[in-house]
Specification:
The chain is an alpha+beta fold. The protein has one domain. The protein contains 2 helices and 18 strands. The strands form 4 sheets. Strands 1, 2, 3, 4, 6, 7, 10, 11 and 12 form a 9-stranded mixed beta sheet that branches. A 4-stranded antiparallel beta sheet has the order 14-13-15-18, covered by helices on one side. The termini are far apart.
């Protein structure tokens, strides 16, 4: 056979592929594409889930740290202790009625319409139903101290100018040494290069006289009552809120916190450690509280990150979605109550 004939025969055999071969190739290609798409979708879902859980854990750690930091300092007024020193309160209408052993920390249960126990003062607005509220009273340390002895008990308070309290007229102020504590309302604050002068006239106090004339070993603190509670923000997402001295509106701290549940540890035998824990509506004596158990529930901001839908109770109703949810708990000791 000539070389020309062989070339023509080989060319006819390599002319193309059959319809069956084409369909088989297309099916194999579609299977490969479907596999790639499935892997991509799975990886994307995994990324979204991990991202949502990371955000939940980050928010949870921050929320618990902020809550624990203030609860731990409940009743703080310097080196004194509320169990040994009863503050002399001359301020008119101080937060929570004035710092005392029975109101350094207080809790409330809210069912959507009623508070148990009754709220001490004006309750925060917009609280999510079936969540708890905790109020913490304390002095805030800002590095303020007397720069001159008081000659008489009704003398103005003279402070170092480099403190960070930013005192304003109307603020409730704590002055304390290790033997006595007074709580008064500032009626005038004068800023100077070498000192800050705070007056405590009887126009906003029951008297202008403190319990004694303090010396330069006294320290000055700003008295604040903090309310922590769950409320929906402008985006209709639940968040942990804080309110200072009952002033509305409160400030949003952490988004995605949908529940706050609290139990309070009471010292019933005088050893300064909790013997039993109870919800706020079952606490018999708030002056015996030495620790707080806090349980917060967080959820993802998107509702399509979980594998399957779940139904749970929120704000007095049952809802179903695909949000990720996580509980975080911590037991917080009150430094001014425990050894």
């Amino acid at each position: 056979m000539s070389s020309v004939s062989r070339t023509k025969r080989q060319a006819s055999r390599q002319r193309g592929i059959s319809l069956v071969e084409l369909m088989v190739a297309m099916v194999i290609g579609l299977i490969l594409i479907a596999g790639v798409v499935k892997i991509f979708a799975s990886n994307k879902q995994g990324y979204r889930t991990h991202e949502a859980m990371s955000r939940i854990q980050e928010n949870g750690r921050y929320a618990m740290e902020i809550l624990a930091r203030n609860v731990r300092m409940a009743g703080f007024m310097g080196c004194g202790n509320l169990d040994t020193i009863e503050p002399n309160v001359i301020a008119n209408n101080p937060p929570s009625g004035g710092l005392s052993a029975s109101n350094a920390v207080r809790g409330y249960e809210y069912d959507g319409s009623n508070w148990s126990p009754s709220f001490n003062g004006t309750a925060p607005t917009g609280v999510v139903a079936n969540t708890d509220v905790i109020t913490v009273d304390r002095g805030g340390d800002c590095g303020a101290y007397l720069v001159g002895n008081m000659l008489v008990d009704n003398a103005n308070i003279q402070l170092n100018p480099d403190n960070t309290c930013n005192f304003q007229a109307g603020d409730v102020v704590i002055i304390s040494d290790c033997a006595s504590t007074d709580i008064f309302r500032a009626t005038n604050v004068s800023l100077g290069a070498s000192k800050i002068t705070i007056a405590h006239a009887n126009s906003q106090n029951t008297t202008n006289r403190l319990s004694k004339a303090y010396n330069t070993d006294a320290r000055i603190y700003k008295y604040t009552a903090y309310d922590y509670y769950i409320k929906e923000n402008a985006a209709n997402e639940p968040a942990l809120y804080i309110r200072e001295n009952g002033v509305e509106p409160g400030s949003e701290l952490v988004e995605g916190v949908e529940n706050l549940q609290l139990e309070y540890g009471s010292d019933t035998d005088g050893d300064r450690s909790a013997d039993s824990y109870a919800a706020a509506d079952s606490v018999a004596d708030w002056s015996k509280i030495t620790s707080v158990r806090a349980d917060i529930t967080l959820r993802s901001l998107n509702d399509n990150v979980a594998v399957s839908s779940k139904t749970y109770s929120y704000d007095g109703a049952n809802i179903t979605n695909k949000r990720l949810r996580k509980d975080m708990a911590s037991t917080i000791g009150l430094r001014n109550r425990i050894p």
